[in-house]
């Protein structure tokens, strides 16, 4: 069995919080690979992503270039409509019958797991690896019993970084260098993404 971590998100833009979560999960949970999956239309977010799907995917590719275990997948960007994880997992299981999958998610996403589309079905097919993030400590006790056993919480150095905060910095004309990998920084500046 190949053990694969799935890192889903809008990645608008990808930042070092995403990368550290993925690398920490890979190491602590013995994952063979981590697949980054930018979503087209995230189910539980208001408002469309700011950057195009193409640009968000390109930033993911730039960010993970050189990591032999990290891959970028475009299946959610290609699939029309809302990007439900359950559809992604069905597609990936068919593509790789020899793979076992675990979603890597931050504290905000752990706490809203009960609201995920067809969560019981999803939790039957994949496990979850949860990491706390500043402002979003994981509250495993508040999850329903059925989900609790499917979530493994791992420690990770806390990075108070979000894509929204990075977009806000750009709107104010401020630097986002080192919050994102150098290649992503240069791409954002060159394309004038997020408004400055
Ligand atoms: P936004 O502010 O636009 O929501 P974000 O920084 O939360 O952006 P997402 O693309 O929404 O990024 O998140 C993708 C996944 O990465 C989610 O599971 C989220 O919880 C996790 N994540 C994002 N930032 C961090 C961080 N700093 N530490 C740990 N996990 C994070
Ligand atoms: Mg988010």
TrEMBL record:
Q: Which domain of life is it from?
A: Bacteria
Name the UniProt key words of this record, in alphabetical order. ATP-binding, NAD, Nucleotide-binding, Nucleotidyltransferase, Pyridine nucleotide biosynthesis, Transferase
Whether Ribonucleoprotein counts among this entry's keywords is: no
The record's GO molecular-function terms, alphabetically, read: nicotinate-nucleotide adenylyltransferase activity
Q: Tell me its EC number(s), please.
A: 2.7.7.18
Instruction: Please give the pathway this protein is involved in.
Output: Cofactor biosynthesis; NAD(+) biosynthesis; deamido-NAD(+) from nicotinate D-ribonucleotide: step 1/1
Q: Where is the Cytidyltransferase-like domain?
A: 6-168
Name the InterPro entries on file. Cyt_trans-like, NadD/NMNAT, Rossmann-like_a/b/a_fold
Please name one Pfam family that this protein belongs to.
CTP_transf_like
Reactions catalysed, semicolon-separated, are: nicotinate beta-D-ribonucleotide + ATP + H(+) = deamido-NAD(+) + diphosphate
The record's listing under PANTHER family reads: NICOTINATE-NUCLEOTIDE ADENYLYLTRANSFERASE-RELATED, PHOSPHOPANTETHEINE ADENYLYLTRANSFERASE
State the family it belongs to. Answer: Belongs to the NadD family.
- Enumerate the NCBIfam families for this protein: cyt_tran_rel, nicotinate (nicotinamide) nucleotide adenylyltransferase, PRK00071.1-3
Q: Which HAMAP family match?
A: NaMN_adenylyltr
Known role: Catalyzes the reversible adenylation of nicotinate mononucleotide (NaMN) to nicotinic acid adenine dinucleotide (NaAD).
The entry's protein name is Probable nicotinate-nucleotide adenylyltransferase
Originating species? Thermobacillus xylanilyticus
